[in-house]
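ARCHIVE CARD
CATEGORY: sequence design from structure
SOURCE FIELD: tokenized fold
FIELD CONTENT:
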């Protein structure tokens, strides 16, 4: 395995771990607000939160195996995630679904790109990511099935999409973006 490949794998693990932590913070804030405003969403949010905690732990364990440290922008994922979850939960059920759909569709796309890359370099990490992706698709489908498209929901999806891509780029200094661009060109 080349040094560039090793570095890309380290970036993938770093950003996935940070992203899962961001997701934990989003769902945690939404669950907290939902106790008062949307008790009917608590079952979905509790289950989804438990999935994200498990994903985060699995990426953390792999980071140890690949000798990778946590992302330096963890504070940004943590604060940004919590604020996003809190604000969307205050805005209502549809905003929660728009936020989930936006986050999970970004996650889904990135995981697909990563799996394609990892399969080429024959790394067992591809299986771990493919396994986690199953639950991410469930989260996405749940939100998509309940989301009512409005101007506000489209705005939330666009904002969350841009914010997520920006934090991913910052967290990896563009390495994951370069990997994805390279894969698309092949
Ligand atoms: Fe996750
Ligand atoms: Fe998820």
């Amino acid at each position: 395995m080349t040094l560039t490949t090793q570095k890309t794998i380290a970036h993938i693990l770093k950003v996935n771990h940070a992203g899962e932590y961001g997701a934990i913070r989003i769902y945690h804030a939404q669950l907290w607000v939902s106790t008062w405003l949307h008790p009917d969403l608590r079952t979905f949010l509790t289950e989804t939160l438990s999935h994200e905690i498990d994903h985060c732990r699995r990426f953390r364990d792999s980071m140890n195996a690949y000798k990778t440290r946590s992302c330096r922008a963890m504070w940004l994922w943590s604060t940004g995630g919590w604020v996003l979850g809190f604000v969307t939960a205050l805005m209502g059920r549809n905003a929660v679904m728009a936020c989930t759909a936006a986050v999970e569709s970004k996650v889904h796309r990135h995981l697909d790109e990563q799996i394609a890359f990892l399969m080429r370099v024959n790394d067992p990490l591809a299986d771990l990511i493919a396994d986690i992706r199953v639950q991410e698709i469930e989260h996405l489908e749940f939100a998509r099935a309940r989301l009512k498209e409005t101007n506000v929901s489209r705005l939330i999806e666009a904002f969350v999409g841009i914010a997520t891509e920006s934090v991913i780029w910052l967290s990896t200094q563009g390495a994951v973006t370069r990997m994805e661009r390279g894969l698309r060109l092949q």
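CARD ANNOTATION: The chain has seven helices and no strands. The two ends are 19 Å apart (CA to CA).
SHELF: design records, drawer C
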